[in-house]
Structure formats: C-alpha cells, structure tokens
Write a structure and sequence with these properties.
- This protein is mostly helical and 154 residues long.
- The chain is built from five helices and no strands.
Length: 154
C-alpha cells in the first residue's frame, strides 16, 4: 500500500508540472542565474528612486529609540533596503574614479548591514552609530561625485 501511495503521489506531482501555466522544468545545465542588467536611467533618477524613500522613512524612525517591535521592524526594513542599494551601486560605476565609487558603495552597504544587525538586536546606540556612519559614507560619495550636493542629515 505504501508503494502505491508513493507512486500515486509522485505521478500527481509530476503531472502538475505539465499543467498549463506551470513553470517549465529547468533545462539540464541551467544552474547559472542570468546576469543582472541595470535599468537605463540617470544616476539622479536612480538615487532618487532607490534611496530617497528609505532614507526619509529611516530618518523619522531613527529620531528616537523605538518603543515597540513595529519601530524596530521599520528600522530593519529601511536599513536592509539601503544596504542592498549599496550592492546595486556596484553595477553603476562611473567611468572615472570607479575605485572610489566602489569604496563608498561597499562602505555604505556595510554600514547599512551593521544598522540592520543593530536593529535586530534592538541596540539603539549601535544603530545610531551605524546610521550616522552610513550617512557619512553617502555624504562623502556625494561630495566626490555630486559636487557636494544632496548632503544627508541624520
């Protein structure tokens, strides 16, 4: 009976894969993910679209230590978005001074990751320190690549 149940279950699972709308099975050797391709846009539009919202929301929740889990969750979420944004910056290196761009992108990503970790631990002093370090890296990059415009204030 167990063999029958196993075979019937396996047949059902295999059969579901061939239903209309079902995702096709990956081809053999298709273990490599496609390379990321940045959406064509100006750096201004990219920065505004990816970073401005999370920065503004984070600024509000970092004004004082959160009193509840919702506040800590907000910090974690915005920190994670900003940290991952640092990874996205690595796909958009300028032709000139790409090494410095990489340095700032990695440093802001790492500070954002530290902010995420501090928020997960509900350690506001460490979160504040990481938040300010992240903004310091953003501002240093803006100074170099944006003629000192768009300086961020904690």
């Amino acid at each position: 009976m167990r063999l029958f149940t196993f075979l019937a279950s396996a047949t059902l699972v295999v059969g579901l894969g061939s239903l209309p709308g079902a995702a096709p099975a990956p081809a053999r050797g298709a273990d490599k993910a496609p390379a990321p391709v940045p959406v064509p846009t100006s750096m201004h539009d990219f920065m505004e679209g990816v970073f401005q919202g999370p920065y503004r929301r984070l600024k509000v929740v970092m004004a004082a230590e959160p009193k509840d889990n919702a506040g800590w969750k907000a910090i974690r979420g915005e920190a994670l978005i900003l940290a991952e944004g640092g990874n996205l910056l690595l796909f958009r290196k300028p032709e000139k001074d790409a090494d410095e761009w990489t340095k700032y992108s990695v440093a802001s990503r790492d500070a954002g990751a530290d902010l995420f970790k501090a928020a997960k631990a509900k350690d506001f002093p460490a979160a504040k320190k990481s938040y300010e370090a992240m903004l310091g890296q953003c501002n240093a990059c803006h100074k170099k690549f944006d003629n000192g415009k768009n300086q961020l204030v904690p």
